[in-house]
Amino acid sequence: MPQLNTTMFLNQYGCTFFLFFVLLFFFLFILLPQVKKNFFFRKKINTKDFLKESLLIKKVVFIWL
Fold first, then answer.
1. Residue 65: in which H helix or E strand, if any?
2. Which of 14, 21, 36, 38 could join 10 via S-S bond, C-beta 3.0 to 4.6 A?
3. How many CA atoms lie within 13 A of 57 on its CB side?
4. Which letter does DSSP use for residue 41 in this model?
5. What is the torsion angle, in degrees rounded to the nearest 10, for the CA atoms of residue 40, residue 44, residue 47 and residue 53?
6. Using CA atoms, how far apart are residues 41 and 34, in angstroms rounded to an integer?
7. What does the alpha-carbon distance between residue 39 and residue 45 come to, in Å, rounded to a whole number?
8. 14-35: pLDDT as tens digits
């Protein structure tokens, strides 16, 4: 297998590395914080609804007892 010099390597794989790091930057600093923020709000809303439902169930059970 012939030896590859640096310019040949960068010519073949430079764009691939650049695209990989751009996608990694986009994922880590733009997409992931949005997903975490949405997940936090959904979790907060779900726990509030769950607590309200559990209080209603407790009231109904207490009335029947």
1. none
2. 14
3. 6
4. H
5. -140
6. 11
7. 10
8. 889 999 999 999 988 888 888 8
